[in-house]
């Protein structure tokens, strides 16, 4: 088949009588304009792809972190339920000082309660639960709950002078704050020595 010289070749831009290129259906006038448009479109597609890949990676990391947290803190409810029995074992031991116990059977019972408390605390520690017993430390509202302020304690203001109930943490999360008494600052002294 012989081509007609008056028909434009496929893929070329026809010219008008003045020799200027004529716009095609896309509104572009030259092959360079089309190339620039395609390169821009390709760059936008690459950008969308990279953003989608980054979002997918962020979602994967977030799911991994949530899975690790779930494994690490899964025993939170169980550990909280065990805190009251641990406290009761300590109260039982404190209710009868060993020095006052004369009967060997009662002394044996107290030793058994103390051994049970030690084993229970050791089991909790093996699973990341640690007791907070902050006597003498500086008060930290993240781990302690102040129940009262003690005046004339001989300690600097903000120092814990008494622990009413120990607190507990699971790894780095607070299970229960320690209930404490905090030293109150001494009143300011007036300058005349009175």
Task: Characterise the protein shown here.
With 194 residues, the protein is of the alpha+beta class. The chain has a domain at 130-186: Roll (Nucleotide Exchange Factor Grpe, Chain A, domain 2), CATH 2.30.22.10. 44% of the residues lie in helices and 16% in strands. It has helices at residues 31-73, 76-95, 104-126, and strands at 129-132, 144-150, 160-165, 167-170, 173-176, 178-183. Strands 1-4-5 form a 3-stranded antiparallel sheet. It has a 3-stranded mixed sheet with strand order 2-6-3, with no helix packed on it. The N and C termini lie far apart (123 Å).
Detail the topology: elements first, then pairings.
Elements: H1 31-73, H2 76-95, H3 104-126, E1 129-132, E2 144-150, E3 160-165, E4 167-170, E5 173-176, E6 178-183
Parallel strand pairs: 2-6
Antiparallel strand pairs: 1-4, 3-6, 4-5
Task: Please name the CATH topology of the domain at 130-186.
Answer: Nucleotide Exchange Factor Grpe, Chain A, domain 2
Radius of gyration: 39 Å
Mean pLDDT: 84
Number of helices: 3
Low-confidence stretches: none
The strand count comes to 6
* Helix-strand category: alpha+beta
The level-1 CATH class of the domain at 130-186: Mainly Beta
Neighbour order of strands in the largest sheet: 1-4-5
Query: What is the architecture of the domain at 130-186 at the second tier of CATH?
Result: Roll
Q: How much helix is in the residues?
A: 40-55%
Order of helices and strands: HHHEEEEEE
CATH homologous superfamily grouping of the domain at 130-186: Head domain of nucleotide exchange factor GrpE
Sheet with the most strands?
Answer: 3 strands, antiparallel
Strand content: 15-25%
Query: Outline, from the CA principal axes?
Result: elongated
Distance linking N and C termini: 123 Å
